[in-house]
Design goal:
With 217 residues, this protein is of the alpha+beta class. Helix content is 46%, strand content 23%. It has 7 helices and 10 strands. Strands 1-2-3-5-4 form a 5-stranded antiparallel β-sheet, covered by helices on one side. Strands 6-8-9 form a 3-stranded antiparallel β-sheet. It has a two-stranded antiparallel sheet with strand order 7-10. Strand 1 and strand 2 form a beta hairpin. Helix 3 runs antiparallel to helix 4, helix 3 crosses helix 5 and helix 4 crosses helix 6. The relative contact order is 0.11.
């Protein structure tokens, strides 16, 4: 028994539950194999030393038992927050991706969907937690940063908020890195729009939010 199930979280790849184990709230993630559970648990343990991630309580077969982080999905926070709060969200997301890249050498955080982050609000500050690490791929931090921007461009918020998110990311990159950032954003946008079958023109979105900000490629 993995404990009393309180709720089931939305997840396309695995079964994820909030459970009560002897009165203590935990998150249980059920992978399709023991190998995948072990892989993610090792990533979590490594990152726990340097970044905000749930603490691994134990691993049983294909299940990871983790600390429960109570907060908002970053996508929900992004939809609600004001412009100044967007800047801090972008900074913390980029910082998290940087820690990941630093810890795993030639690998990068490859799934930067805002649903894979939790925002904990504390008075006027926030703390960002990463919660999904079953995938990674070889690549640079700039590619992860570009994917953050691409996801932000497709959420249902006003254009100024999207531009603010992008500008915050770009301002933390060198001039040469911004060229790569913009190229990767265009490619990531194209993939996301096709995958989600959105009725959007990638060139129009890119021109409005990137070139319209004065960042030519």
């Amino acid at each position: 028994m993995m404990g009393e199930i309180i709720k089931r979280f939305e997840s396309k790849k695995n079964s994820v539950f909030l459970v009560s184990v002897e009165g203590i709230m935990q998150v249980v993630k059920v992978h399709e194999s023991e190998e995948k559970a072990y892989f993610e648990s090792e990533v979590l343990k490594r990152l726990y030393l340097y970044a905000n991630v749930p603490k691994v309580i134990k691993v049983e077969s294909n299940r990871i038992y983790m600390e429960y982080i109570e907060g908002k999905l970053a996508v929900d926070y992004f939809l609600e927050c004001d412009t100044e709060e967007v800047k801090e969200l972008a900074r913390q997301m980029l910082s998290f991706c940087r820690v990941y890249s630093d810890q795993f050498d030639n690998f990068r955080l490859s799934d930067t969907n805002f649903r894979n982050f939790i925002v904990v609000e504390m008075d006027e500050e926030i703390e960002l937690y990463g919660v999904d690490f079953e995938e990674r791929e070889e690549g640079t931090l700039i590619k992860s940063a570009a994917e953050l921007c691409a996801f932000s461009f497709l959420y249902d918020v006003d254009a100024y908020k999207k531009k603010t998110f992008y500008n915050t990311i770009a301002s933390n990159c060198s001039e040469q890195e911004v060229d790569f950032l913009n190229d990767y954003i265009f490619n990531s946008l194209n993939k996301l729009i096709k995958r989600r079958r959105l009725n959007l023109n990638v060139k129009s979105v890119f021109e409005e939010l990137v070139i319209g900000n004065g960042h030519m490629v």
